[in-house]
Amino acid sequence: MSVRRLAPKEVQPESFAFTDENLAWAEKTIAKYPPGRQASAVIPLLMRAQEQAGGWVSEPAMRYVGDMLGMAPIRVYEIATFYTQFQLQPVGKRAHIQVCGTTPCMLRGAGELMEVCKRRIHEEPFHLSASGELSWEEVECAGTCVNAPMIQVWKDVYEDLTPADLDRILDAFERGEHPAPGPQNGRFTSAPVSGLRVLTSPELFDGSMVGQGAGLALAREALAAKANGGTAPAAPAPAAAAAAPPPPPKSDPAPAAAPAAKAVEAAGEADKEKPKKPVAPPPGGKADPKAE
What we know:
The protein has helices spanning 20-31, 42-52, 59-69, 73-82, 103-107, 110-120, 163-174, 215-227, 262-273, and strands at residues 95-100, 134-139, 151-153, 156-159, 182-183.
């Protein structure tokens, strides 16, 4: 893992404070935790501070959050530098592009997406573009492997990308627009690119078979009938509930206890024949004559 350090002093702001709206939100968030556990709110507060500051967490913001929670500054620094969701230096004002570089995305062209970022933004990650509008970095798996390759911008993900798609998305961000997230090749979420080929019959989803006891056989018959141009068979009437078995008569005797195993009986007899263990006399006294 790369070393994560705070931004140099020359780019740090003089101070930080939540807006009135964010301050009210922070106070409600802290109140969710029991007394003595307010420090548990450090991550959501740092995330809100990052959003307010335009995508990164400054050192004054960390101190501000620590003061609110009664935490030493170093404890807040430890959290902010550990979790990669926190940006420690200024990022693009319009967008910070996180390109997934894990194996599935690399196999599907993530390297080409990084080349676009190098050409359009900066040769190295964590640097601002010439206009200051964009920045980029490589990240680990963002969880949309089936739609690889992909990028994440703030809370949105853009999937099934080609270099041309990424160029178009960057153009939109530079114009101040918000391009539509999700798959960029027309597919629906993670459905097959070629479209659905199975489970396409409406009988499986329109509720007509629910509660009819139709089961798999009737579903197959309905699909076969539709394919042959016929009429789907009617679902059978619900079967009558099976009669409950009658309760046993009260005159039935209680079940007999299971007989003891022969080995258990033999062990019991052997214990009876064992001599009693001698009782040690108490310290400084005589043994109990009853025990002799």
